[in-house]
Amino acid sequence: MTESTALYDIPGPHARRRHLLYGLASTVVLLALAGWLLHLLFDSDQFTSTKWSPFLYKGIQELLLEGLGNTLKAFAYASVLSLALGAVLATGRLSEHRVLRWISTLIIEFFRAMPVLVMIFFIFVALKVQPLPALVAGLTLYNGSVLAEVFRTGIHSVARGQGEAAYALGMRKTQVMTYVLTPQAVRAMLPAIISQLVVALKDTSLGFLITYEEFLHAGKLIASNLDYDLPFIPVVLVISPIYIGMCMLLSWFATWVARKERRNPKTKAVEVAPAEPQTLLPGQP
């Protein structure tokens, strides 16, 4: 007889056999799809030595490293400025002053709705800003607006009684936000913050559209080279894992920070001595 839990029924022999068949069929389909893709790549001569030879030259390697460095530089500027802008806009959105709250809301909603590429092109073409500042400014305005909503939602996720208790102790609003609400909200906000920073990292690839010599721009120069028979697929196979690796490294860093925060003795519960019998009223034995 099939056992059950509060959430689902434990599958019996027939269900387990059916799930095994589903798994095997899915594996066969995925393997067939991978084999078909490899066949297409081999059939179009994507693995010939001519297409892969560019990566053996020192000049090409230096070009890729320089592009990677420019990508990381743009990401570093954009991430720091986005966090700062998000904190400022979130503070304004949470302000008790109606005018400041309305202005912050208007800025957040406008730049959240505006496509990143449009902002980058506007800053680069209309304002005649250099490629790097234009790219960083566009990424900062968009990601900062999104992070502002992340910060605001994180603050509101903290139990209401935490703030009320702090106010009851006589703390000012700045002290309540700094010492009570924000430290508790950081744990809830951290996954969303890292996800948005990953978006900012990937969006740095838009810089090649305004001639910023970042990682994707370097790959485009290599892929469009006729001397190596237009090695588009080899360039994709080299650049994509690096982008994926950087995003995974950023996610791993967030996990490490969260784990370290949980192990921090300042965040652990303080042990309280057990209650002992004592005199409740003065003068009584």
Describe the fold and architecture:
The chain is mainly α and 285 residues long. Helix content is 72%, strand content 0%. The protein has ten helices and no strands. It has helices spanning 13-43, 49-52, 58-93, 98-113, 116-126, 131-157, 160-168, 173-203, 215-223, 232-263. The radius of gyration is 27 Å and the shape is flat. The protein starts with 12 loop residues before the first helix and ends in a 22-residue tail after the last helix. The mean pLDDT is 83.
What secondary-structure arrangement, pairings included, does this model have?
Blueprint (H helix, E strand, L loop, with lengths): L12 H31 L5 H4 L5 H36 L4 H16 L2 H11 L4 H27 L2 H9 L4 H31 L11 H9 L8 H32 L22
Helix pairs in contact: 3-4, 3-6, 3-9, 4-6, 5-6, 6-8, 7-8, 8-10, 9-10
Q: Please work out how many helical segments DSSP would assign.
A: 10
- Please report the distance between the alpha carbons of the first and last residues: 65 Å
| Uncertain stretches | none
The coarse overall form would be flat
Strand content bin: under 5%
Structural class: mainly alpha
Helix content: over 70%
Radius of gyration: 27 Å
Q: Helix and strand succession?
A: HHHHHHHHHH
Largest sheet: none
Mean pLDDT: 83
- Would you report the number of β strands? 0
